[in-house]
């Protein structure tokens, strides 16, 4: 069985995905988008789809954003190193736990200043993900579209959530997947994605980790780490695609299916471009700020269809898979859908405190 699963990774690329992510120089028609990308669960990057947005010229000016949101209080996510919704050492024994950021209500001008001029003891990120663009940042709605018209027509619905992301080069999001069709528009700076299709689920070494939360003391300028009570476990990928210098060999031995398998698709989404990220694709995200010191993006989450592709994925992830290079079975057979990322009750699970999924992740897209 394991050999057949491993051959599937190559066959999917040969038959459907190719070796690079398609780039479109203009927005597709709804039929083209549905036929060539959504139905095939295949990502693409689209240029000239948001060139009419006032945001492209207005938002890279920090004074404009601060003035527009001068009276707004926003949800600022704080971590010691920019890694939220990530695996960190367990506070009480030698293992790992899944940690979420400390979320602090903050006046927007102060939040933006912390992102643009980060102190050496914390990393700030605006990434609330609970439809925050239409709630916390409502004053900016006229600067961009409320939805992506050709995507809405193709998908037969309007987005369930529209989110705003403002961060700096320290913030990144570990590998995860979302049960949404994601249209991700970059307004300032660049976003860097590593992408793997749902067929590569065994390569993610998904394991359940105890959930934890950062706490931050302004008086001391220090972070604490506390396990959630009652105890909760989160299914999460164990793979770090960028291990510390000198650790690559060790990580390759621990996770051979990832490091010895097909390379992830690598894409950079620049200001003015839109990434279509299909539902259930695994993605790791980092970013490069623009001249304003920020990376700014708006993403649109459309409800995915829980159709035969979803059934195939659930069946595939239930199969055991052994690496031809490693006699041990990767910890990937746990039920991902028991965790916060996977509940089909997306709005309830997603917006009640689960990603980027957790309580508000992923992206740190």
Automatic annotation (TrEMBL):
Pfam family, one: Cupin_8
Entry coiled-coil feature ranges: none
Domain (JmjC) ranges: 124-317
Gene3D superfamilies according to UniProt: Jelly Rolls (2.60.120.10)
Region (Disordered) location: 326-365
Entries under InterPro entries matching the protein: Cupin_8, JmjC_dom, RmlC-like_jellyroll
Compositional bias annotation for Polar residues: 345-365
Family as reported in the entry's similarity comment: Belongs to the JARID1 histone demethylase family.
PANTHER family found in the cross-reference section: BIFUNCTIONAL PEPTIDASE AND (3S)-LYSYL HYDROXYLASE JMJD7, HYPOXIA-INDUCIBLE FACTOR 1 ALPHA INHIBITOR-RELATED
Protein name: JmjC domain-containing protein
Source organism: Hibiscus sabdariffa (roselle)
